[in-house]
Amino acid sequence: MIELTTKIEQITVEPGKRILVTSDIHGHLSYLKKVLEKASFCDNDILFIVGDMIEKGPENLKTLRYVMELCKQGNVIPLIGNVDAYRLKLIYELSEENVCGFYNYVLNLRQWTGTSFYEELAAECGYTINSPDDILLSKQAVINHFEDEFKFLANLPTVAETQNYVFVHGGLPEKKISDNIDKNVFELTKFDAFAERTSDVFDKYVIAGHWPVVLYGSDIPQMNPIINRDKKIISIDGGCGVKKDGQLNLLIIPDINCSVDDITHICYDEIPMAYALDSQKPSIDSVYISWLNKEIRILEKGEEFSYIEHMKSGRKLHIPNSYLRNETECFDYTDYVLPVKKGDRLSIISKNSKGYIAKKEGIIGWYCGDLENG
């Protein structure tokens, strides 16, 4: 049995080295490779991976092994995330009492992404998962075969502290870093809405993932890192693997002693790109229906669009039927109209008879002009 305990690692970063930070890769190996390539990641950089390397993506085991290989360079510091920890814990605790629930979860992931971490593990051991019994039959073979991978995950730090920055997947329940050592791993890795819920003002900037930054917005959805200067928190989860319009963010800190104003970011996704052939002005007033306030009431159902009432805001609007989750809920949706200039490069999320739902520089909204393939 592998024990998960909170580990706080102290790291001194030499001045002159770039610090790169990403999180929530969720099995998207191509995203990780491409964003590091875009950043020209090299031996003189320090890379922090702030948890949730696996699950919800197409290449979970390959992603984990790629990170393990990167760590041999000596300049890569991964931390454990709640998904990493939960998956490890559950595999060891699989039993007749809980296997049906886990099997249903595996089926949901298979429908969502085509695979799951456990299915990939079992497949390498020669098992196909078609029933709860298959999971129990494969359990011991999986534990034996992946001893190195599981030990790697279990030994990851929960918190990494440097001279001016602290890294943690979810958040810090206690302001003083050392006071968090007695918290269990899940209190630090699954701290939902950390930047909103904590009342602490930290002495060093705390860089966290876990909570997609788009959930912090109330009007205009955006996927870029958010710097909260009042509390000294930087939130970087771009929704990779969780949101269909998500991206993998990479924070770039040019030097350990630089000003927070010098911090930049790049990102990567695989949403098709196109160039705008027309300009348009942004809308003044918009509605954003997020996972946190997804309740709606359908007032009139149409073939392509439905007229709905958003229960949280009381606003009434037309939305594409493809964004309806069911009769009472809506997937993440906005009626915000993007500011666009002719020649702007846009990520095209979806198309309908009224235009396109697109992403421009991390911001989601509508584009209603013509496009040229990019």
Question: How would you portray this structure in words?
Answer:
By secondary structure, the chain is of the alpha+beta class. The protein has two domains: 8-268, 4-Layer Sandwich (Purple Acid Phosphatase, chain A, domain 2), CATH 3.60.21; 273-373, no CATH class. The protein is 24% helix and 24% strand. It contains nine helices and 21 strands. The protein has helices at residues 29-38, 60-71, 82-93, 99-113, 117-124, 132-145, 147-154, 185-189, 194-197; strands spanning 8-10, 19-22, 46-50, 76-79, 159-161, 165-168, 205-208, 226-228, 233-235, 248-253, 264-268, 273-276, 288-289, 296-301, 305-310, 316-320, 333-334, 345-352, 355-360, 363-367, 371-373. The chain has a six-stranded mixed β-sheet with strand order 1-5-6-7-9-8, with no helix packed on it. A hairpin with a 4-residue loop joins strand 8 and strand 9. Helix 4 packs across helix 6. The longest helix has 15 residues, at 99-113. The chain is globular and about 55 Å long. It starts with 7 loop residues before the first strand and ends with a strand. 40% of the residues are buried. The mean pLDDT is 96.
